[in-house]
Specification:
Radius of gyration: 20 Å
Number of helices: 6
Helix content: 10-25%
Structural class: alpha+beta
Shape: elongated
Distance between the termini: 23 Å
Length: 274
């Protein structure tokens, strides 16, 4: 359920952009028989795909990636992989050094069509200018070619003040959510969800699909055990770092919390196997 509510935040069809909006990406990326028409891009700092060095990663997609819907998350790469990429939505990862010079790329369009990290025969005019990666990257190889124009904003790494190891008040609310979700207690669960998420829960109950919605909420949640390991808070928003276990695998991720009506509530949760 949390996933369903969040997806709309990340993807907005290109025609819906305001006429005077500056496109964050344009052009096309072709690899073998698949072409990705670029409609959006966002940049963030993360570890290189090649080694543990710091890099500027640009996610280029055929949908518009809204920075405001991504900036609150700590691990932007995990978020995009889990929430944006699917059979209809592709992402090409372009990697730049911290000064904005091109380093390499990573993408996967299907078996035998992609690379974990490759440099290609790329010509780049991209520069880091006023918090954006701006310029063109081109490649004219036999099986891969692209001509992309970027104006990708680099997301801030400032998530606010550090929370204590247990997440403080937001962490306490999250653990209450974990307990209520595990019991399937809809009465206890509802006030622990943000107003937006409560709407989805109420609609599910009205349609007699509460159990289906509950299963969706449990998907990817560390239902066997979970621990808050820290986080950050800024105003009425907080992001918690979590790890734990499901019945199948160890998980790590984060939970977005919102303070509404004087109480902390879960607005989103995203995890991946370690």
């Amino acid at each position: 359920m949390l996933r369903l509510a969040a997806i709309a935040l990340f993807m907005l069809a290109a025609p819906a952009l305001a006429a005077d909006a500056v496109p964050t990406a344009a052009g096309a990326f072709k690899s073998k028989d698949i072409t990705l028409e670029a409609n959006g891009a966002v940049a963030f700092r993360a570890k290189s795909f090649f080694d543990d060095k710091s890099a500027l990663i640009v996610a280029v997609s055929n949908v518009n990636l809204r920075p405001a819907a991504i900036v609150d998350y700590v691990d932007r790469r995990r978020l995009i992989q889990q929430r944006v990429m699917d059979d209809q939505t592709g992402v090409v990862w372009l990697e730049f050094r911290p000064d904005g010079t091109y380093r390499g790329m990573s993408y996967y369009f299907g078996q035998g069509n992609g690379c974990q990290f490759c440099t290609g025969e790329v010509v780049s005019t991209v520069k880091l200018v006023d918090g954006k990666l701006v310029g063109k990257v081109t490649d004219r190889e036999k099986d891969r070619s692209f001509d992309l124009t970027l104006a990708a904003p680099v997301l801030s790494d400032d998530h606010g003040a550090a929370l204590p190891a247990d997440g403080g008040a937001p962490g306490k609310a999250y653990m209450q959510y974990h307990a209520a979700l595990g019991k399937g207690d809809r009465v206890a669960l509802r006030p622990l969800l943000s107003t937006e998420q409560q709407k989805f829960l109420d609609q599910a109950q009205k349609n007699g699909k509460f159990d289906v919605m509950l299963d969706a909420m449990k998907e990817g949640h560390p239902d066997k055990s979970v621990q808050v390991t820290g986080g950050f808070m800024s105003g009425d928003k907080a992001v918690l770092l979590i790890n734990g276990e499901s019945s199948l695998v160890r998980l790590a991720g984060e939970a977005l919390m919102i303070r509404e009506g004087g109480t902390w509530r879960v607005d989103d949760e995203i995890t991946a196997g370690e």
